[in-house]
Amino acid sequence: MSVDQTTVRRIAKLARIAVAEEAVPHLQDELNAMLSFVEQLSEVNVDGVEPMTSVIPMEMKKRQDGVTDGGYAELIVRNAPETEDNFFVVPKVVE
Fold first, then answer.
1. Which InterPro entries match (predicted)?
2. Model pTM?
């Protein structure tokens, strides 16, 4: 895939980046170099290769999923003008 100067200008416009006209050829070369590198990466055979989170094999740190805080809903809604069963009561805004 190759990027022409019109495409470079369009990308800059979509990204809302001001690009001087003399910088367009340089950006075209850089974008084409990036795309050629991506094409090289697609040629690599990665069948059977597990995704990595690090270069060193490691287990993810996990914690027990449990409630460690709460149980004081009465205190939270205490200053509300109107409550019902420890919930805030608000006026209906959608018909």
1. Asp/Glu-ADT_sf_sub_c, GatC
2. 0.50
